[in-house]
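Lab notebook, design round three. We kept the backbone fixed and only want residue identities now. Task for the bench partner: fill in a sequence for the structure below.
Input structure tokens:
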């Protein structure tokens, strides 16, 4: 449930324009690990709570030695009323929140990494 199986590797930035960019100097070993990760990554399976662009960026940064936060958790009410009908979302409190990766969280974390000297701002 929830996994989209039509993803693909995008050469370049597609139509997206970064709002913040940084450079991380790599050792040859880090480059090799990232190269292997990128080529082994399953781009065909993307999901809002799994693999997607923000989690991918955080994983690559981690291989470069820079830990980036990427997740945000949002509380979910256990039920809502829609058109007079009660719709139940969950009974077990384990499902009371949804955790997803967010580009905003990655960007804020990347800005922090630049301020801490772990990455270099790129104009």
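Proposed sequence:
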């Amino acid at each position: 449930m929830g996994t989209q199986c039509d993803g693909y590797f995008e050469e370049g930035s597609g139509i997206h324009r970064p709002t913040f960019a940084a450079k991380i100097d790599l050792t040859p070993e880090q480059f090799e690990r990232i190269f292997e990760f990128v080529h082994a990554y399953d781009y065909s399976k993307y999901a809002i709570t799994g693999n997607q662009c923000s989690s991918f960026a955080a994983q690559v940064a981690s291989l470069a030695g820079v830990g980036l936060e990427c997740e945000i958790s949002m509380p979910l009410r256990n039920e809502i009323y829609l058109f007079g009908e009660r719709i139940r979302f969950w009974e077990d409190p384990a499902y009371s929140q949804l955790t997803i990766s967010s580009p905003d969280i990655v960007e804020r974390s990347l800005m922090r990494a630049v301020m801490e000297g772990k990455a270099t701002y790129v104009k």
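Keep this in mind before ordering anything: Residues 21-70+101-122 form one domain.
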